[in-house]
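To the team - manganese (II) ion complex, inputs and output below.
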Amino acid sequence: MSDPQRREFLVTAAAIATLATLTGAPPAMAGDPSFMNNVPDPSLSGKDLPTFKFALEKSEGKVIGNSSGKEATVTQLPISRGLAGVSMRLEPGAMRELHWHATAAEWAFVIEGRVRTTVIDPAGLAETNDFDPGDVWYFPRGHGHMLQCLGDKPCHFILIFDNGYFSEFGTFSITDWIGHIPKPLLAKNFGLPESAFDTFPREEVYFARGKPPPAEPSVPLQGWKLPPETHRYRLLAQPPHGVYQGGREWRVDSTRFPIAKTITGVVLDLDPGALRTLHWHPNADEWQYVIDGSVSVTLFGSHGRVRTEQLQQGDVGYIPQGYGHSIENVGSKTARILIGFNAGIYETIDLTQWIAANPADVLATNFGQPAELFAKFPQRDVFVTGRNGPGK
Ligand code: MN
Ligand code: MN
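Output:
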């Protein structure tokens, strides 16, 4: 082996050894979230921050008849490892067929039209709910469910999943399963002749189409057996969680919606020029969908890395856990943003509050400024400010 070759070999061997140490460590530490948080994310380790925007509504997605599903996963938006999302439209009479998600819980917000869902839990308890615009549902990971357009108008809703690797097109669908099981096995399983399954679909149906459902939900085959916790929360039917000079925020986490243990949701309205002030979330990644208007999002990721992107209606944004950010309405009308977090409890630390929580002498030393200057800073958490700033 020549010297340069030998050198390369040694470097490679050292790299493999380092990798082995790294990949060898997680099993012992599995389940320790503080450790998991320290695993370097290659997509965030570069000299510059990667893009955190994806034009979801401009993507093609999956279309059957007049129903469609468009998704944002790590495939479309590599930074979004913690959360995925789907924009789904169902035409009247269409149903997103019975299915479950092996690797994600599902949180949803209805934008338009009406939706009916039925979901089952491991105790065999099932709930059917009807949803109007502004309503939210949450289905725990692995629980079987279906979604149905209710009434004679199409519906549109946004689904948020607590796993960025989760694809809506890789769900476990009931027709996909039954269509691929040998007939004798099905006959034995259900106590029916094999011929009963002759005309069942052979492939995954995904969007089933039939008559619109009855106005009132029909009784399940087993009768009503309701679970103790509801899967529905009427988010926009509540008064806003916070009202500010430049906007309003509706928020729901597991303290108000107990079944939603892994996802928190927010609807944020920003008036023209208003700013959701600089902040970060200690406990969660953030997934954004612009329902209306256009906003400018600025992300801070240490080492002097700052990136600003403009999000228009139908665009998705993503903020990794712990990364600083702000959202500014740069349009001429009120902007509405749907936000999902992959934690059951909402946490934020805002820069205005952090500064207000420190004595003037600390701030004077930190910034090399006269202490008097800091009396002019807000002495509270501003959260959202109007176009002219917070004043004191
Ligand atoms: Mn689903
Ligand atoms: Mn945020």
